[in-house]
Write a sequence for this structure.
């Protein structure tokens, strides 16, 4: 009876060992190419963002109800644990994040060399070099941006960020519209890049597609390092409109600081 039990235990132990080896072999195989998903999860401070109804308070005691958050994610670069980098092809590296659309929250990057990735870098907006190529050099981006109302004109180019809604303040007691759009204005291009360390390695394999979950704290657009009061930009019947002027470079600085990586799924 004991011999039978010992044999059974031995078989189980061998099975576990073989299973572990098989799993390890799979996760350690860094040949070939795979995919990685970047998920952009919008929040306001520590709260998940809810459009249209959620009251959001700024440090300037203004209350915002946000109706739109869109931004162009571009120029993705991934860094491996050994320091080498993979630059995602620029022609494919444009995504429009849109809080109101399920398709505007997760972006899949394909044909990524297998490896252990520890850092992600991306731009917010369309870099000036790409813009200067004109329509022929911008692939499907122009059509995507036009459909998403993220394109101004050939003179002004793209909206890199669109942040809209209504607000009230101690001096503006009736709900008043606001619009914050970043992009090319005069000599300021307002494109910015973000580099983030991953809390755990993203294991890109032919059999593993990691998902990098990023939190975008949209409160920092006007309430980051630089504090912008919407009531100071209120033009009466036009509402508070920030699409240029001295505030826009300050908002661009804020935008670069509103992203963090919450966690990585290696499933």
């Amino acid at each position: 009876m004991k011999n039978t039990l010992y044999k059974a235990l031995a078989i189980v132990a061998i099975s576990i060992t073989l299973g572990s080896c098989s799993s390890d072999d799979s996760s350690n195989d860094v040949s070939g190419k795979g995919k990685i998903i970047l998920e952009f999860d919008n929040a306001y401070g520590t709260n998940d963002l809810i459009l249209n109804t959620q009251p959001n308070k700024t440090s300037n005691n203004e209350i915002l109800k946000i109706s739109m958050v869109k931004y162009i994610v571009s120029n993705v670069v991934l860094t491996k644990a050994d320091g080498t980098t993979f630059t995602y092809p620029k022609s494919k590296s444009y995504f429009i994040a849109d809080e109101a659309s399920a398709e505007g929250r997760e972006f899949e990057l394909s044909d990524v060399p297998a490896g252990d990735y520890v850092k992600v870098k991306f731009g917010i907006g369309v870099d000036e070099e790409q813009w200067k190529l004109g329509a022929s050099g911008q692939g499907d981006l122009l059509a995507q941006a036009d459909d998403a109302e993220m394109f101004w004109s050939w003179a002004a180019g793209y909206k890199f960020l669109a942040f809209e809604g209504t607000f009230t303040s101690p001096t503006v007691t009736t709900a008043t519209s606001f619009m914050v759009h970043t992009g090319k204005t005069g000599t300021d291009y307002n494109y910015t890049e973000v580099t983030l360390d991953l809390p755990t390695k993203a294991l890109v394999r032919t059999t593993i597609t990691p998902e990098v979950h990023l939190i975008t704290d949209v409160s920092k657009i006007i309430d980051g390092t630089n504090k912008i009061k919407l009531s100071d930009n209120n033009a009466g019947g036009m509402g508070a409109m920030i699409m240029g002027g001295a505030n826009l470079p300050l908002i661009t600085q804020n935008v670069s600081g509103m992203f963090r990586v919450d966690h990585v799924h290696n499933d």
